[in-house]
Amino acid sequence: MFWQDYSDGAEDRVFLIEGENHYRYSDIFRLGDEFFAHATRAVAIILCDRTHLSVAAYFGALRHGVVPLLLDGSIKRPVLSSTIQAYAPRYIIGDLDSVPDGYAVARQVGSKVFFERIAPVAYPLNDDLALLIPTSGSTGDPKCVRLTGRNIESCTRSIVEYLSFTPERVTVSLLPFHYSYGLSVLHNTAFVRGAMLLTEQSVLEKDLWTRMEEAGVTDISGVPFTFETLRRIRLSDKILNNLRCVTQAGGRLTPALTQHFWQYFADHGVRYFTMYGQTEAAPRISYVPPERALEKLGSVGIPIPGGKVEIVEAIQGGGDGELVYEGRNVSMGYATSWGDLAQGDCFGGRLHTGDLARIDSDGFITIVGRKKRFIKLHGISVNLDHVESTLRNAGATCMVVGKENCMVICVQSESMDIVQAVMKDNFNFHPTAVRLEICESFPLTASHKPDYTALSQRYKLTT
């Protein structure tokens, strides 16, 4: 596994760039070993930030057979408490002020503190269990994805292959490590023994781009929010000359914006990849080869090396249906408490994604919506994702939520005319079932994805 020592001297390469400090792989692995030198196999909550100590703690857990459960370092206390109650972790790594009831300080490594449970709860762990990642970010739902070392290794190897990653690549931590996409960027970097610039800065901060220039960043990875922001920024010649690859995942970017960035980066010799995945796939399912991007605009691409896809439960009279992915990177399943951690593989290498999709004759996948993002309006089944994408493709800034017999279109004021025109020209919903609400800012999750749950709660659409 790539978190163990390589035998070719690669551990002497620079791994993490943090401020003025450069940490080698050997430095990070030594710190990780210091965290877990006396630990037994158990669950350890790691309260993550984008620092070298969080990375060291994560790899230290993997190296010592401890199962890390990754949480946002700024998580709210009630959410942390509910997760602790669900999993009774033996260890917690965080800041000194994050000590929960029932835990005592065992050791300190730099500014991070290793807490140990005063009265440990003994329970079995499946031999293959390597990592737990929550499915809901910061909502307090303790449901986690159960990943094995083989899942992580297999997915990372496939990504490194299609991105043509090499040890000379320099990534940047624009995404948090408790988010599966951000963690995957870290995995890719470590797999080839490349380097990563550590930062928690926004892409809107000028100083970040200066630091990226100085570090020679070759790879940028972002979610749609990242690229909607980048559209307003002029990248320097030095940034563009250093760049080799840009990847976008974590949600749908409009075809127009995808085309813009593909062309922009292609003009500077940079490869631009649209990708798709889920945490349950560790986390990658498909990618769009840059040479097919314009031809397949709107698609999320072909399966990653070693993966296969098919459509099940196809809608009668059409090719749309639920997308099912098969591969070695598919997780073992879910857990909602420590009682689930002894379970074996519940998925059997097949992931029912919950996404509705179609696959064309060339094997390219297009996502058309979520099974759970369907509502009934006066008996008619409505795909909220289709409505939202139709509006966004026309240039509207909006989000669409709803429940039975009520669809709410949240729109910025300058897009109101566009929304009204598109709704009139494209849909025939009964006017009593549709509400337009002015919404100048949209809620986002910690990973900068649209937070439909928060928006539904705002308009009292949840039960």
Explain what this protein looks like in three dimensions.
This protein has 463 residues and is an alpha/beta fold. It folds into three domains: 22-142, Rossmann fold (3-Layer(aba) Sandwich); 149-371, 3-Layer(aba) Sandwich (Rossmann fold); 378-458, GMP Synthetase, Chain A, domain 3 (2-Layer Sandwich). Helix content is 27%, strand content 28%. The protein is built from twelve helices and 26 strands. Helix 1 packs across helix 2 and helix 4 packs across helix 5 (180-192). It starts with 13 loop residues before the first strand and ends in a 5-residue tail after the last helix. The mean pLDDT is 93.
The assigned structural class equals: alpha/beta
Helix amount: 25-40%
Strand line-up of the largest beta sheet: 4-3-5-7-6
Mean pLDDT score? 93
Span of the ends, CA to CA = 45 Å
Which residues form runs of ≥5 with pLDDT under 50? none
The CATH architecture name of the largest domain reads 3-Layer(aba) Sandwich
- Quote the beta fraction: 25-35%
CATH first level of the largest domain: which class?
Alpha Beta
Overall geometry comes to: globular
Number of E strands: 26
Radius of gyration, in angstroms, nearest whole number: 22 Å
Biggest sheet details? 5 strands, mixed
Tally the structural domains. Answer: 3
CATH topology name of the largest domain, in short, is: Rossmann fold
Number of helices: 12
CATH homology superfamily of the largest domain: ANL, N-terminal domain
